[in-house]
Design brief:
177 residues, mainly alpha, two-stranded antiparallel sheet, 6 helices, 2 strands, 60% helix
Length: 177
């Protein structure tokens, strides 16, 4: 079983890798889609953060959305053809950073025992973070495909961690070694 603080470091590592995949791109590249049935890099960035917010909100603490107008747009239940009108890159970056701060605050409070049922919440926090990390890397794979196949951009090196590997081509944090 992983220690919660170690998982928070892995969460940060996954977010750093995501940033390496998009922060050198222009706004037009982040919002561009090869066709209507394809999600732009920017959509994946917003979706990664939205899922993290929903999981924190629903599993650890009821919090309002940091940007309610993005909730419907970044939800994967929204068909790809309706994912075209994306917010600015700055707004997406702010959304991602705000959600990450909330993940750290909530999980940090759990790790410090500042919640009711701290042992039970630590179990939830552990599995929640593993899911968040693997979800981040799942969408990173799709960002990589757009970056290389459609934009002709090189990829940064994979993040390095004893806990990471590849399964079916995807980076994953494997809780089973």
């Amino acid at each position: 079983m992983y220690e919660v603080q170690a998982l928070l470091r892995e969460y940060d590592r996954s977010r750093t890798y995501t940033d390496e995949l998009w922060k050198d791109l222009g706004a037009d590249e982040v919002t561009w889609r090869p066709h209507e049935e394809f999600s732009a890099i920017g959509w994946h960035l917003g979706h990664q953060a939205l899922v993290a917010h929903f999981m924190i909100r629903n599993l650890t603490a009821a919090e309002p959305s940091p940007d309610p107008d993005l909730d419907g747009l970044m939800d994967s239940a929204n068909p790809e053809k309706f994912r075209g009108a994306l917010p600015t890159v700055e707004r997406l970056a702010t959304f991602r950073d705000t959600v990450a701060e909330r993940v750290h605050a909530r999980i940090g409070a759990i790790a410090a025992g500042e919640v009711g049922a701290p042992t039970q919440m630590s179990i939830i926090a552990t599995h929640l973070l593993i899911a968040l990390i693997n979800h981040e890397y799942q969408h990173d794979q799709w960002i990589c495909e757009v970056r290389t196949e459609h934009l002709g951009r090189a990829l940064p090196p994979d993040p390095v961690s004893d806990y990471l590997g590849r399964v079916d081509g995807y980076l994953v944090l494997n809780p089973f070694g």
